[in-house]
Amino acid sequence: MCFSQTSSKKITGANTFFLCSWIILCFCSVYAAYELWFKQILWELDSVRKIFIHNHVRDERNMLTVVSRIHRITMIFRLLVDQFAVLETMTALDFYDFREYLSSASGFQSLQFRLLENKIGVAENLRVPYNRRHYRDNFHGQESQALLQTEQERTLLQLVEQWLERTPGLEEDGFNFWGKLQVNVEEGFRSEKQKLEKMSDCETKQELLEDLSKQIELFNSLFDSKRHDHLLSKGDH
């Protein structure tokens, strides 16, 4: 929340100050609350990543800590979304009167928000350039270095993927979970298709068959590495 230092109009006079003061307080309160909660999320996130990085997650007792802290992060995000309702109590006209005292800025320029994105695992190729610039161009010095460091660290997404990949039973020469899953799900698809084909011809039957076909295609993509990589490149996890 940046107040313009170059605006030709300044908050002067008792009436103008009275009209704008509650809006200023509202904006500053919401902004400060977001930054404080971002700080809490970063602490929780770093503690979870540390457990995964040092393989403490192999001790299943630590999973309670991981689940508890991830749950807390989820609750904080819900709270942050709900806080928009406070800003919505401001009418469009209220904001219009106040907007001239703000410089050009964006919530996406929050350093903590960007650190949070990197630590969670937002891929570089999936970022939408803000103002046609690389997101790190809005930061300088130590802030830019901090962002660069988080880009080089293992993200929560990567750490969770590595943890899931070590799940026993995935070996093809062992229990072969994926092989058994594929056989059973395909059998279920065949059974469902036979039931649909026995239905009397109607528009609903065709819609159900088309939906089933989409489900089969999506499931088969799990076992097609090229198709899987294509979906990942689009951000469809």
From TrEMBL:
This is Tryptophan 2,3-dioxygenase b. One of its GO terms (molecular function) is L-tryptophan 2,3-dioxygenase activity. One of its GO terms (biological process) is L-tryptophan catabolic process to acetyl-CoA. Coiled coil: none annotated. InterPro entries: Trp/Indoleamine_2_3_dOase-like (IPR037217), Trp_2_3_dOase (IPR004981). It comes from Astyanax mexicanus (Blind cave fish). Transmembrane segments: none annotated. The lineage of its organism: Eukaryota, Metazoa, Chordata, Craniata, Vertebrata.
